[in-house]
Design a protein that fits this description.
The structure is a homodimer. By secondary structure, chain A is mainly α. The first copy, chain A, contains ten helices and no strands. In chain A, helix 5 runs antiparallel to helix 9 and helix 8 runs antiparallel to helix 9. The radius of gyration of chain A is 19 Å and the shape is elongated. The model of chain A has no long low-confidence stretch (mean pLDDT 95).
């Protein structure tokens, strides 16, 4: 494929994922028609099938693209970076269609016969990366296991956003995320690290 | 209504909820036909409509009935009772259709247009009850808020079971639940209470 054709293919794929996310976010999996997605993306059926063989493949791609929406405040690293990622996530989950659709599909996937843990494992790996830095810097308790903490966090965040969605349409998700860290930090971080880590809700809006 | 007719109505309602749970657990909401549920329950359409006007009302009743499946070890109370409830939950979620369907429908309800927090709020209230006892016994840290902890726990457990389901078909859920408590207890319970609380996975099987 020529460079120009390659660029076009990448753009088409991106447009399909974004449009699919918007439609999935609005209508859910069952209500999302492929025709609607193609119209929104301005893409032909043939072009879609070059990238995705089915609506289910599109849903899988949307689920896997969640992390593209998250950019934690520059310069933060280790434990602070992990906290920041969750705060930004809590804010963006209220407005970003790619993130909203990814989370919605991940949670509801059983209803359309999927069982794909990829998005959860991607989050786990991103969290382990932060926790490994935190451990190297001496910020974690001696018996804290980055892998186990990361798996718990992925589950906990998934459930907390679902609870928040049912109770408040996610209006209180940022506050709940801060509260989660207040409960969790004593079990994973050293007292020194806990004093240093900033839990201001404002950080969820930082770039 | 005579006493006999009342008893029969209660039994019919119970049979419908149990049968609906079995069918929802197996086929999900979309795949669960009302005819299948009626056949399984041995109930006529007319008898069903006396109790439930629609499949959606049946689903709501199944979601709300989750706690009927949980009986923690006798004699445990306060913080230990709360831990025990989650361990029994982790075990029974592998086999009990009423619990499995309740949790599945609660998580997937967005896919069929429901937004019903009742089951989550029932869990929250049951947890607050245990935590209030724990607080009265001096087992909680001074700044621990039973209501906030309970809301976080409902979300966390919901997400952890979903993660466990995707990774292992819930085979590792009991282990993950024990791990959750090891991470959480330092943030909510006094050192004395933490030493006393038993986290043996075996307690999930106790009656």
């Amino acid at each position: 494929m020529s460079r120009i054709a390659q660029d076009r293919a990448v753009r088409t794929r991106e447009a399909l994922i974004i449009s699919a996310a918007e439609i999935f976010d609005e209508f859910g999996y069952a209500g999302a028609g492929v025709t609607k997605i193609l119209e929104r993306a301005g893409v032909t059926t043939g072009a879609m099938y070059f990238h995705f063989k089915s609506k289910s493949e599109l849903a899988t791609a949307v689920m896997s693209a969640q992390q593209q929406s998250i950019e934690p405040p520059q310069g933060s690293h280790g434990l602070q970076r992990l906290v920041d990622i969750t705060l930004v996530w809590a804010v963006r989950l209220r407005t970003d269609p790619l993130l909203r659709a990814g989370v919605r599909l991940s949670v509801e996937q059983g209803s359309f016969g999927l069982q794909d843990a990829t998005a959860f494992l991607n989050w786990r790996d991103a969290i382990v990366e932060c926790l490994d830095v935190a451990r190297d810097e001496g910020d974690l308790l001696a018996d804290a296991d980055p892998h186990a903490i990361a798996e718990f966090l992925v589950g906990a965040c998934t459930g907390v956003q679902l609870y928040s969605q049912l109770i408040s349409g996610r209006e209180d998700l940022l506050r709940r995320t801060v509260g989660m860290w207040r409960m969790l930090l004593p079990g994973i971080a050293t007292p020194q690290a806990r004093q240093r880590v900033l839990l201001d809700a404002d950080r969820g809006y930082a770039v």
